[in-house]
Each structure stands twice: as C-alpha cells, then as structure tokens.
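Researcher: Go.
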Amino acid sequence: MSFAPVKEMEGVLLVDKPQGLTSHDVVYRLRRKLSMKKIGHAGTLDPMATGVLIMLIGKATRISQYLMSVDKAYEGEATFGVVTDSQDAEGEVLTTVPVPPLTEAQVREVMKGFLGDQYQIPPMHSAIKVDGVPLYKMARKGEEIEREPRFIRVMAFELLTFTPPKLTFRLLCTKGTYVRTVAHDLGQKLGCGAHLSALRRTASGKFGIAQCLTLDEIEALPLPEIEKRLIPVYEAAPRVAQ
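Model: Structure:
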C-alpha cells in the first residue's frame, strides 16, 4: 500500500512575539509545533520587544525580501537620564544624569526634527556584519568601530505620554530603522541622554497586531486550525508571481 506524501503548510502566519524571546526562538518553536524545517521570518525583533512578527511557512519563505521591505509602526517607551551601551534596557548603564525640567512642548519640538529622510548610524550592539563579523560580537569585546550611516525615513514620531523621566511614543518608519537609536538620539538632543525601555511593533506593512496570535495560542491549536490562519502568498505579497 502506498501513501501520498504529506503536503507541507504554506503561507504567512502572524505572531505576537512575547518579550524575552529572539525571533529565532519563535522559528524554533513553530518548527517543533508544525514538524517543518522550512520556516523563517520577515523582520527581526529584539528579545526585549513584543508585537508583530511575520512568520513565513513553507514556500512562503520566498517572499521574505518583499515583506521585510515594508514600513513598520511601533509604540515604545524611552527613559531619560540613563544611557546604556546597547541603547536599550538590556545593556550596561554608561551614564546617569539628572533630567532637566523639560516640558511636553519642548520635547515635541525636538521630536519634530526626527521626521523625514535622514541617515542613521546603527548601534554597535546590532547584527550588522563588518568583514563578516557581527557588530555585537565586537561590542561584547569592548570594541567600537566606525559604522556606515544607513538611509531611513521617519513618517511619524508622536509623543503619547510624558511623565519624567519616561516618555511613551508612536513611531512610523521605514525598514532598517533602529528604534533604540531614535530613543538614544532623542535623549542626546535633549541634553540628558536616554535609552529605549520598552517596545512593541504594532504593524508591519498592512499587517497589524489585531491579526496576530500569541505563541501560546498557536501551540494550543490543532494543526488544521493553524492552517486556516495562514495567509496565502498571493494575498500577503500580490506582486510576487505564483
């Protein structure tokens, strides 16, 4: 008796990444749940961050480049007066200074200066490779090298709440933007330094957080139910030939 080969799943699965996991951790858990190896993601989130992580299942991995190039929306928190080596809450504290008596109006005015096309210097604690070596590996050895600025665009940078020393914000930007660098640079411009203390990706392209399932929800679902949640390649990236 012969059996037909099992058809592997194919499509885009939207995950609300929990805090504390790397994007690869999510890949590993989905591979285990779906009993598939061909799984990737379109746009890394740092372990500290939560929110929209586009997972590519099966042959959908071929549209990775298309989905990575879309704009991203975030909500985050910056803490003024504390600068870290990684520019976020996971790094070592470098300096601590008192926060001056800033007003919301002053902060909003400085935030306006971040809008538009610009070049951003990526942080040392990043996965960008120089001569084949990730910058974060050099940073862990205490090394710092000159980094090539990267072109980005910030379409929106809005103050949501300001209760010193913490500020919450909404950011809409192009791919490759380091939000922790935006928070760090904002602190520098305000004269007291800052680091990114929380981050949530609320949208990646046309996909929003309301469409996502948590990892726990996915792992609790039977496989046929997960398959129903997959977005077909032609819907996720209509410009990609089938």
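Model: Helices lie at 23-34, 64-68, 104-112, 135-140, 179-189, 215-220, 223-229, 233-236.
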